[in-house]
């Protein structure tokens, strides 16, 4: 074998050991998926902070109600959606499978379920806006229903991709665990 600064073994240029330098595919997959999930979590935190700001402004009456409407009922349980994201981040350093599974389950309960409820809660108001062109709640001049439906659509996509990548990451971690048990 060749040393860093010393002579190489006779009859080799050192390239015959490159096959040992490859990283196993499930480790590469784990790193890539963790990166994608972190981006989605940071996007979720941004959405969460916007909803929190809207709720604080609405309840503390920092702006008139014609500027920022009071929050819808679904927004209150959605505030708990920060917990699954934190569990997901906690699972990354040591590939903790139980934290990742808890994150996935609680994402369904605290993130996806409030979004579904919110879509149903706001549907009559969206229908009234579409049919009659009347909106009674506004956020900076835009109809609150339209703005909040946009938030629901974006958040649903973020959480959907987060669950998809988490499942792929979980599969990757199980692959590495099974390979360790074989040895």
UniProtKB/TrEMBL annotation:
Highest taxon, organism lineage: Eukaryota
Membrane topology summary: Multi-pass membrane protein
InterPro entries linked to this entry: Jagunal
GO terms under cellular component: endoplasmic reticulum membrane
Cell location: Endoplasmic reticulum membrane
GO biological process: endoplasmic reticulum organization; granulocyte colony-stimulating factor signaling pathway; vesicle-mediated transport
Transmembrane residue ranges: 40-62, 99-118, 138-158
Keyword Endoplasmic reticulum applies: yes
Keywords from the named record: Endoplasmic reticulum, Membrane, Transmembrane, Transmembrane helix
Keyword hit for tRNA processing: no
Similarity section: Belongs to the jagunal family.
Identification of the protein by name: Protein jagunal homolog 1
Organism listed in the record: Thalassarche chlororhynchos (Atlantic yellow-nosed albatross)
